Structure formats: C-alpha cells, structure tokens
C-alpha cells in the first residue's frame, strides 16, 4: 500500500513502454468455471430488450415507486441509466463463488437504487476495484458507504486515481471532481494502491495495473484533458490509472472488463494476453472510449483488431459512442450485444 500522495511528475518516468510478445513468467491466473457480469449502471436502459442464453435482462417491473398521479399511488419503474459505469462480477470455481464490484457509476444513488430494484445485496461483495479516478466511475461510492455501514472493505486503486484533473476548453477550464483518499478511508474502505498487476479472489481475477501501450493508433485523451502536477496543469493523454479486470474462463479464454478503456481496447486485450499467456479472447465488456471526433479515427483499426481476435461476446458500453457501436455490430454480428443497465452476462466453461 502506498502512503504517499500521487504525483503526476512520476508520469515522465513511468510511461508504459512498448512490450511485444509474451512475458517470461506469465501470471498464473486460475481458470474459473463461470463468470457473471451484471451491469449495475450504464449509459443506456432499454426495458424492451429480451433475454437469451447468455444475457438476462431487467425490464420494466424491476421496481415500484410512489407516484400519486396513478390509481393506487404507485408506478412501475426500470433501471436508472446515466453517464457512468458500474458492474458486479461474480466468479465461480467449483463450489466457491466470490463477488467483486468494478466501478460505481456517476451519481451517489444510481448504483444502489438499481441493486435494490434487482434484489441484489451489496453487503456480499468481497472487494471493490476502481478502473480509474474519473468521477463518472466513482460517484456511487457515496451510496455504497451508506449501504454497507462501517465494515472494512478492500478497494484496489492505482495511486494516480487521486489526480486532480480538468478540461481546458476554449470557453474556459472546468475542473473535474477529484476522488479523496482520506474521505474513503474515513468511510472504512481499506484502500490498496497498486501500479502493477494484482491477483484477487485466490488468483481467479486479475487487475491489470498500468497497461502497456503498443498500438500505433490508441493515443489517449485529446489536448484539453489536463492534470495538476502540484505546480502546473499539463496535458494528461494517458490516464495512467486506467486498468481493467481479467478472468480466464476454463476452455474458453479471457473475459476482459473495462471501465472507460482509456488505454485503448486493443492495448488492454493485448496486455491481458501478454500477462496471462492466454491467447483466446472470449469476451470484452465495458466502455471502449471511441465516442466523439477525437476518437472516431480510432474506430476502424480497433474494429479490425477485435474482428481478428474473434471474441464470442462483445458488449461495448458507457463511452463507446454510437458510431463505434454500429461498426462493431456490423463487423461482429454474432458477438455484439446491446448493453443496458441491469443486464447480466453469463460466461461458462
């Protein structure tokens, strides 16, 4: 655990270097029999989507709330959607099942409200993993703290997750909300800071740590995204605290879960392959950050690389953007699935 404050000056000496090929000693990621990814918060909710053999959808009727304009004083509601991401990850190996929370969404209440409507207890999670420090992935920690009381809960973060950031636009700079290490510890979270890969849940889940940047086209955030070094604002293209979750489903391959994918979807997948020595990509779920003019040129090479990897399931969410969604759906029609708050994706050996 790091007790020193994160310093963006470290970026100059810790920028990931290109690393081709396999690691000499691959990380021993234990294969699992089943993983379920429940999207508690995503940018979209579609109550008319239907379930199938690999997805379980939460439609209308997931909850009831007071509404005096209706006869009886109540109405049926679905899931909350917002510009944020949160996923509950259940991993089963043999008879043992463990649960992680990956990111917590934008607002204090969306994640916990959706969990309540689905009848999910957040008291059963074994740890929290934050993909990075951006506010649309950590805002729900407020609600989580209120739901679980003061019980200590491990939280894995990159030490740069506390970085103060802003968007320096032509009309003026807007500072982004900054996560507070002291406040989280005060709420009872056991904050564990790691730059390097971590194995959780008896070696069944890998947190990638900093991701090697090996592609020629995934360059990160545009010029307006800046970070405070302690003395000046500098361009922060890499968002070095970006990390992903990786699970190896027995006889199927890797399941990769991203928050925003600031490191680049292809960089992340290649990094996971290199760390584990597992070549097969079974599923890619989460934000791929391909929306908007700065990222749309990255769509064609990303789609081409993912098509070559031939995953069985691709669920682009959150910040992926509609152009990338359409491109991925066209290129991978049997693998692509529309994301939606309250959907569970089941992947089994």
From TrEMBL:
Database matches in Pfam families: Lactamase_B (PF00753)
Domain Metallo-beta-lactamase, chain residue ranges per copy: 86-192
Record-linked CDD domains: DHPS-like_MBL-fold
One MF term in the entry's GO annotations: 7,8-dihydropterin-6-yl-methyl-4-(beta-D-ribofuranosyl)aminobenzene 5'-phosphate synthase
EC number: 2.5.1.105
UniProt xrefs under SUPFAM superfamilies: Metallo-hydrolase/oxidoreductase
InterPro entries: DHPS-like_MBL-fold, Metallo-B-lactamas, Metallo-beta-lactamase_dom, RibonucZ/Hydroxyglut_hydro
UniProt keyword list: Transferase
UniProt name for this protein: 7, 8-dihydropterin-6-yl-methyl-4-(Beta-D-ribofuranosyl)aminobenzene 5'-phosphate synthase
Taxonomic lineage of the native organism: Bacteria, Bacillati, Actinomycetota, Actinomycetes, Propionibacteriales
């Amino acid at each position: 655990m790091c007790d020193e404050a994160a310093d963006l000056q470290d970026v100059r000496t810790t920028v990931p270097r290109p690393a081709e090929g396999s690691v000499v000693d691959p990380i021993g990621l234990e294969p699992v029999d089943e993983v379920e990814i429940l999207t508690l918060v995503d940018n979209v909710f579609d109550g008319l989507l239907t379930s199938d053999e690999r997805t379980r959808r939460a439609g209308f009727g997931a909850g009831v709330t007071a509404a005096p304009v209706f006869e009886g004083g109540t109405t049926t509601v679905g899931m909350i959607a917002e510009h944020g991401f949160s996923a509950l990850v259940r991993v089963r190996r043999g008879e043992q099942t463990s649960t992680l929370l990956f990111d917590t969404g934008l607002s204090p209440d969306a994640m916990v409200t959706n969990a309540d409507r689905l009848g999910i207890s957040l008291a059963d999670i074994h740890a929290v993993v934050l993909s990075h420090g951006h506010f649309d992935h950590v805002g729900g920690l407020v609600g989580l703290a209120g739901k679980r009381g003061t019980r200590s809960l491990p939280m894995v973060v990159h030490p740069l997750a506390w970085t103060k950031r802003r968007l320096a636009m032509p009309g003026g700079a807007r500072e982004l909300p900054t996560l507070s290490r002291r406040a989280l510890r005060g709420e009872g979270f056991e904050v564990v800071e790691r730059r390097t890969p971590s194995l959780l849940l008896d070696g069944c889940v890998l947190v990638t740590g900093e991701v090697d940047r090996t592609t020629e086209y995934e360059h990160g955030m545009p010029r307006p995204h800046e970070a405070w070094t302690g003395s000046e604002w500098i361009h922060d293209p890499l968002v070095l605290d970006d990390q992903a979750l990786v699970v190896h489903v027995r006889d199927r391959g890797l399941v990769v879960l991203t928050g925003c994918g600031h490191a680049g979807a292809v960089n992340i997948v290649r990094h996971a392959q290199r760390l584990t020595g597992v070549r097969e990509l079974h599923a890619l779920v989460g934000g791929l950050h391909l929306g908007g003019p700065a990222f749309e040129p990255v769509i064609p090479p990303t789609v081409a690389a993912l098509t070559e990897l031939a995953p069985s399931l691709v669920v682009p969410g959150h910040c992926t953007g509609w152009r990338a969604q359409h491109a991925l759906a066209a290129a991978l029609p049997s693998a692509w699935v529309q994301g939606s708050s309250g959907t569970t994706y089941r992947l089994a050996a």
